[in-house]
Amino acid sequence: MKLVGRIREQELLTDALTSHRSELVAIYGRRRIGKTYLVRAFFGKQITFSFTGLSKGKRSEQLKSFMLKLNEVSAEFMLKKPRDWLEAFSYFKSYLKGIKETHKKKVVFIDEFPWVDSHKSGFLPAFENFWNDYCTTRSDLLVVVCGSAAAYMVKNIINNSAGLSKRVTQTIKLSPFSLGETRDFFRHKGIPMEEYEILKIYMVLGGVAEYLEHVKPGESAMTTIENLCFKPRAYLEDEYNQVFKSLFEERSYHQKIMDALAGGNKKGMTREEILEVLQVSSGGRFSDSLDDLLQSGFLLKYDSFRNKKKTLLFRIFDEHCLFHLQFMRPFSGSNWMQIFQKQEYKTWCGYAFETICLKHVNQVKKGLKCDQIQSSNYSWSNDKAQIDLVINRDDGVITLLEIKFFNDEMSLTQSDLDCLRNKENQFRLTTKTKKGHYTGMLTTWGVKPNEYSKAIVSNNLTMHCLFD
């Protein structure tokens, strides 16, 4: 098993592996993101014991599954039938005590931790006791707990205020592959692909490793999308619904929030606007659902200035969710080779590309050669102009970035120049900033040099900077 990317994550796991004490590592991230693969590929044979929770399993079923795994590594517990998790962990401690303590870490891996901790299961208190009463008395244990239910992991493990308070020694929020990691992944798989094709696939699949595994060599981006999303019994045909069923309760607002955002302004909606669409009160259930979506990486919350007023906008941040809601649901059973030629697809590409640029804002700043300068970034608008991305630097410079998805080099016209000039003027008049501000363009293939582009474009970035 070979790891592609995940450089920072491997550094954190290495620190845990080489420390002088026992470590408790919490890893979370959306379904199919590669959490299990990361742990198994990195630790390999150093995993002394592993156990995976059962989806919707009862306590008795979870206990039986745990003991079956324990029986695989030690026949001593073959006939043991624990009454509860405290007793099960007492057997597990007996097994670990039989392994001689050395400087080399023994890795204990509990996958899908939230599934095991069902209502009134008693699993979490028993685990807390296991860690505090036994693991901390040794220096050679590395306990890794994983979960796709991000909100659960953050609330009950990472920010636990009871038995696990401040006990987690390393936290890893596993994000989708970046565009650069996706390119490296395809190279590792022996799939040579141009960056433009990778970008078009990424706009539909995102950087979800499991989805990318199904991309075949020699197929175009459009053929890949047709095969994975629109063919009869396509691999991703019902993925959106399955993801939400596995992570969230059916009576929650998760999918309703996603539907509201998909049907609203693609650049984002305020919390109040979402509530108005759903016709619900801003209660705990709504707040919890919104927070779950943010923690899981399905939504992005970012700053936006409308005139002089700062507000928070929410937009769909998961590429496949956005694509499913925009095309797979309304065009179910249709032929993608016909759909992608419609104006709806061209319009959607602009929003999807903009979201990817926001996701890769550090790469954008590197392309602008300002990644070493402290800065803030946000969108801005008033009644007369709208700016996709403002990068406000501490060295007295502001870049007003126009983001466009285009299938070729863009050639600016007098009308384009007038529009960009108006955006500069509106921004300066409304914000009354004293900083120097410059207009930049971030497009797929760049902007052709001509009299209009030379008059206003200070930075001409292409999609290639996003792969850096």
* The CATH homology group name of the largest domain: P-loop containing nucleotide triphosphate hydrolases
Query: If classified by CATH, what would the architecture of the largest domain be?
Result: 3-Layer(aba) Sandwich
**Total domains, how many?**
4
Q: Regarding CATH, which class of the largest domain?
A: Alpha Beta
Averaging pLDDT over every residue, what do you get?
A: 94
Strand content of the residues, in percent? Answer: 15-25%
Q: Based on Cα principal axes, name the global outline.
A: elongated
Q: What oligomerization state is this entry in? A: single chain
Give me the number of helical elements: 21
- Percent helix, as a range, is 40-55%
**Unreliably modeled segments:** none
Indicate the radius of gyration in whole angstroms. 25 Å
Largest sheet: 7 strands, mixed
Task: Give an account of the 3D structure.
A 7-stranded mixed β-sheet has the order 7-6-8-9-10-11-12. Strands 2-3-4-1-5 form a 5-stranded parallel β-sheet, with helices on both faces. It is α/β, with parallel strands linked by helices. It contains 21 helices and 12 strands. It folds into 4 domains: 167 residues, Rossmann fold; 52 residues, no CATH class; 118 residues, Arc Repressor Mutant, subunit A; 108 residues, Trna Endonuclease, Chain: A, domain 1 (3-Layer(aba) Sandwich), CATH 3.40.1350.10. 45% of the residues lie in helices and 17% in strands.
